Structure formats: C-alpha cells, structure tokens
Predict the structure.
Amino acid sequence: MRYFANVMVCCFLVLSFLSRASSGLAQSQGGDKAQEGLYSQLIRGVIRLEEHQSICTPGRDWAIEADVPVGSAFFVRDRLPDEGATEVSRFFVVTARHVVENHADLFARVQTKAGSSETMVLRLPRQLWVFHPAPIQPGRVPVDVAAMMIPTTDFAKAFLHCMPDENPGGCGTDEQTKQPFVNQVGDQPQVMDPAIILGFPAQLAATHAVEPFARAGIVAYKAPNPDLLIGGIPPVDDSLFLIDALAFPGNSGGPVMREMLPLIGGIQLWGLVTASEPYQARYTIATPAKRIRETLVHARSAAKLNSDAWSTQLPKLPLKCTP
C-alpha cells in the first residue's frame, strides 16, 4: 500500500509539474529563460488604465492634477504568417470599448521586471483605438472590445493568439527554448467551468498599484438572453456569458481566464469583463474571446501603430484653469 501511495504521489507531482510548465504567458519577444510564477507574469500582462484630470476650484486660476483609474486592460500578441510563410507578431492592448471610447487620452504603468518597483509608462491616445467591426445599432450596447497596436517590448507579457486556419502549423516556435507556442485565445467555456477574472477594482486597488486583483467563480450561464440589460440598455452581442463572481467599477476590460486547476495545463483566455449584472452586481457579464479574435483580425489592417507608446515620463496637463 505504501508503494502504491508513493507511486500515486510521484505521478501527481510529475503531472502538476507538466501543468505548471505549460502555463506561462508569452513574452512580447521570445520566452523566459527560467520558469516564472503565473501571477508574477500577469502583473506585467494585466494593466490599469488611468486618466489625467485637471481639478479646478471656483475662484482660482490654478488646478490640481489627478490620476483617475478608469478600467483594466491586458496585452495580446497576435501571430500571423506573412507572405514568406514565416511568423510575424503584432502586439496589442485589449480592453472594453466602453472604458476608452468616452475618455480622453489614457495611460498605464507597466512593471519592467518581476518583483521590481520600476515601471514604464504606456501612453494610449484616444484616436488610435480600434473597435470591434460590428456596425452600431441605435438603442443597443455595441460589442464591447477595443484594441490598440503598440511596439513590442522585452518586459511585457501577453496572451498569445493565432488563428488555426491561418496558422495550420501552430503559433510558431520560441526562438530561445525551441518549444512550440500554443494558442491561448479563443476556446469557449462551458457552464460550471471554473473561471478567474483579473483587474483593478476602484477603491480596492492601491493608488498606482500594478498588481491586479483576482476573483474566482464559475461560468454560470451562456445561453442568449434577450432580457439581459447593461446600464438599462440591451446589448447587440448575444454571445455574452455570466460568471458567478462580483465585479466592480474598474474591473471592466480585464481578462477572464480559465482557472488553473491541478492536472490542467495551459492558459486559456475566455473573454473580458464588460459589466456587472444589475441585480446587486452578483454576476459578472463577460464578452467572449471570439469577439476579441474578430477585433484583432480587424485591427491587423485598421490599426495604426502607436509608435510613441512607451515613455519614462507620465503625461502632463496644463495647471492653469480655463473658464
């Protein structure tokens, strides 16, 4: 019996190691030389979007600058064969459309190295966002995905995306480890599957924090629901699904992932956070990964590269108030 128990323990440890070994996010260029914990990677892959606001006091001609968090976002590396059948990458910031379309230029702080307090500033001009290509329907909430193409870096981590019909040989090979990349965007969850949402809930995340909050729940409902409302308005997207987990303002745009259970390897991005179900916010409304895929395919030709995205300095606002 002791021998049998030892064999079972060894098998479990081996399978758990294999699970962990395949659970990493892709770097924007190449892969890590050493295995790194998943949450440590997510700190460099899930970001908080912030906005500068100038607060003017009546009767004064000066203002106070304030950094106001408006939502969450994450990185996706999109790989596509070029005409020479070699792999090329495009690096995107992905978030919810409603987070960015009604705000001014945004920015984010991105950790430059695991465990480091040093950050780079990612500047996100409003006019460079590309939205899901579905036409706007009056009186309905549009498909809630936005993307912006940015230069690759050697520190940011990303969910890897490739299309099976366009990449029949897979997503390419890591130049450092020589291991094949695996598509991490696109699988559809099933009801009762465990899920994780990540993001920066307002008034809970520390000021200027780069570490996202995680919350677990199960996929609660997937069927089309014509009675579902977002802010009192029906959505145009009938593929939204519900997660039995609370979401708060600031979580919008954050990724929805498969929960990393023992013996289940590999990252799966299932979608992004769109809203909270209105009845006491008991459920998270999620936009599925297929809408992210459709947005990325559209952005390949529609997006303009944000070539000045990375900076060491925060953007500045004029301090003088105007009438």
Q: What stands out?
A: Residues 2-21 form the longest helix (20 residues). Residues 151 and 202 are 28 Å apart (CA to CA). The domain at 2-311 is CATH 2.40.10.120 (Thrombin, subunit H). The longest strand covers residues 63-81.
